[in-house]
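Re: folding output
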Amino acid sequence: MTKKMKKKIMIIHGPNLNLLGTREPEIYGKMSLREINSRLRTLAGKRNVSLKIAQTNSEGSIIDLLHKAASWADGVILNPGAYTHYSWAIYDAINACGLRVIEVHLTNIHAREEFRHRSVIAPACLGQIAGFGWRSYVLALEALLEHE
């Protein structure tokens, strides 16, 4: 019987997500980024998944993380924050890295301000999960693990 290989997933939290728990809790919830990461690590442990988690406020750093992930990761969960709506550079990086990427948002971007309705990144991604708070990350992790 062959032992199943441990999946390796990169999670990239974009700009301002380091402020979760205190940043507009009526919109983004009261859970901190540390708490979200802890819950993801717990789930990953139960699913035999290795996680690497990073947060950056810089578009260039997101691109660098995607490039590096291409050499080791099986997939990426990306919350690009406001870069969602205008970063063609992140779109290009997703296409270039060849990884399955799921775009994640805590809020339903389609029910918010009109400028948030369009994601220029989504067409390069396997899918988009939005509107389920911190559980959006959990749903993305499950989707990556189940998608072949």
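--- second protein (sequence, then structure) ---
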Amino acid sequence: MEKKNNKYHNSFPLDPEARVKALKTILETKGLVEQEALDEILDTYQNKVGPINGAKLIAKAWIDSSFKNDLLEQTEKVLTELNLSGRQGEHVTVVENTSEIHNLVVCTLCSCYPWPLLGLPPSWYKSDAYRSRAVREPRKVLEEFNLLIPNSKKVRVWDSTSEMRYLVLPQQPEDSIGLSEDELVNWVTRDCMIGAGIPKRPGKFND
């Protein structure tokens, strides 16, 4: 049996995406998984949960100091009450960007990620290059995201694990102050909640 398992393992392509497709084909062929079930899972994380949930948390934290304090200090309690914990959403810590510090999240071992808050992880987050370089040269990595962090500001890297995931609370842009919570949601991007971007005026993209 061990020999057979090694044979299957060695026949898998090296590219991660191709490996997933190969595994999916094997599971479907053996009748262990159905396409409809996979489609439902993908639809759930792409359209029903994801960045919009995290964006709503950030927008509320920007205008409600009491909620912000609870989100930072009692994250698990807040997420549980909002039904946003569990299934890759447990054990979450929220880290705040300030005028003195910029936070960046990575998972060096695999791709641990708060799915209920951010949806499916982007391909770059799972790449070997990001996972290795974000820790060694975070400023250079951020520059490649068109994000220049001044030397006066410290960059802190948080390494996610299955036992602790991180969500970045970005600084609110000055030109968004005074907007309603619903309006602010549209300023919050997935990347800024990982630390690889900053909030943007709706319709404005990174250069």
